[in-house]
Amino acid sequence: MAVADKDEHIKYTYKDYLSWANDERWELIDGVPYNMSPSPTRKHQKVVGELFASIHNYLKGKTCEVYSAPFDVRLFAENVSDDDVTNVVQPDIVIVCDPSKLDDKGCKGSPDMIIEVVSPSTLKRDLKEKFYLYEKAGVKEYWIVFADEKTVLSYYLGEDGKYKRPEVYSEEDNIKVRIFKSLEIQLKDIFQN
């Protein structure tokens, strides 16, 4: 399915999504398809790789697992058939601590943490649409990373089910992963050239 093929009046599902060409990456937000092209930049991929490596090394021997895109996260999908799932995202990094949510297709339900490294083509979606989607889905921690600015916005879900005001971190800071007791990441290592 190409961008020209989508009908904005139709709500697509994960079943539709699985039938689309494998050479393109898509996301569904409330049944609306979004093409994930163009490919990310080298800087974007470097930051994703450094964050993934830090988290992966910490999680060795622990229950939680970390995945990087492309990795399908089917939100609001618990006890729902693929015919009815209308929210499928491919975050840059996903942490899942409940193994029952993992299957061969990815994550079915809300992960514990999502990290998005923004690019010009995804900025609005990451800051607005995905922010509210992840909040509604109950994703405990959500980071929005600005690779060019070497800055991270860290959101944590409060007891009221709403993200609290973000903590803002820059290159010289250490950032605590709040879903874990002892993981702190030095951002100078993540943003190194």
TrEMBL record:
- A Pfam entry, by short name: Uma2
Output the superkingdom of the source species: Bacteria
- Give start and end of each Putative restriction endonuclease domain: 16-186
PANTHER family named among the record's database cross-references? GLR1098 PROTEIN, RESTRICTION ENDONUCLEASE DOMAIN-CONTAINING PROTEIN-RELATED
Write down what this protein is called: Putative restriction endonuclease domain-containing protein
